[in-house]
Amino acid sequence: MAAVSDPVELGAPWGPVRSEPPPTRFHPVHGANIRVDPSGTRATRVESFAHGVCFSREPLAPGQVFLVEIEEKELGWCGHLRLGLTALDPASLTIVPEFSLPDLVSLGHTWVFAITRHHNRVPREGRPEAEAAAPSRPPALLMEPYLCIEQYRIPRDRLVGRSRPGLYSHLLDQLYELNVLPPTARRSRLGVLFCPRPDGTADMHIVINGEDMGPSARGLPATQPLYAVVDVFASTKSVRLVQLEYGLPSLQTLCRLVIQRSMVHRLAIDGLHLPKALKDFCKYE
């Protein structure tokens, strides 16, 4: 992991190509009701609706997205996933707070955004607040191969949630790609990153199914290590980490995109004369 004082322009549209950061993992320090699998990539709240706060194992590099996919939901609770950043070292916490909001935030140097079914967009400076709730945009927007957030360019492919193959998966996939399904739905993908500014501070951005929600917090200390915060709260029961490619897409990814774009929907991939492992990769990833 590069030092925070030495920014890595992950996937930036200018400058030399830098090495990618290591895979993201959950920190061994987490809430009392959280169980992290041996790979460190899946976090599940095993009881109650609280004590579900998790952290990234390492501080994020500038422009690096800590991306999770909602794997399981639990009925009967009010509230959803919470996502953010903290300058607190998780290893320094004597006790992990019960909630990220307000408990962890009250410790200071922490910025957390509560994900809701709607209205997650943050209005830009100098633009009306009504813009934050406006979902209308050209359908072709999410067809662009890269998501550009300030000075960073991030391949969009893995940022977008996708349904499991089934009778209506081709319809659900279109809804995910257009960000029509609620951000709190199963298979939705949500990420957090920070972008340094010239004045030495940083903006925190939330990404939902391939779309930037705007700067949800400003004035973060860009020179301090910033860890991702994921609160597996209430109706969100389990999340898994999704790894991203920040440079040029791999040959494997490019082949998958060509195959997917040639199909009516993912179920048709089963009829191709291809190895099963490749067909599964095209359907599930």
Structure description:
The protein has helices spanning 100-106, 130-133, 169-177, 251-261, 276-284, and strands spanning 34-36, 42-45, 53-55, 66-73, 82-86, 110-114, 146-149, 152-155, 189-196, 201-208, 211-221, 227-231, 236-242. By secondary structure, the protein is an alpha+beta fold. It has 2 domains: 26-121 and 139-247, SPRY domain (Jelly Rolls); 250-284. The strands form 3 sheets. It has a 7-stranded antiparallel β-sheet with strand order 1-2-13-4-9-10-11, with no helix packed on it. Helix 4 crosses helix 5 (276-284). Mean pLDDT is 84; it is low at 1-9, 11-16 and 130-142.
Give the tags.
single chain, 285 residues, alpha+beta, Jelly Rolls, seven-stranded antiparallel sheet, four-stranded antiparallel sheet, 13 strands, 26% strand, disordered N terminus, ubiquitin protein ligase activity, B30.2/SPRY_sf, NHR_dom, Neuralized, Neuralized-like protein 2
How would the global form be characterised? globular
Helix content bin: 10-25%
The number of helical elements comes to 5
Q: What's the helix-strand series?
A: EEEEEHEHEEHEEEEEHH
Q: What's the CATH superfamily of the largest domain, by name?
A: SPRY domain
Per CATH, the architecture of the largest domain is Sandwich
InterPro entries: B30.2/SPRY_sf, Neuralized, NHR_dom, SOCS_box, SOCS_box-like_dom_sf
GO molecular function, one term: ubiquitin protein ligase activity
Pathway: Protein modification; protein ubiquitination
Protein name: Neuralized-like protein 2
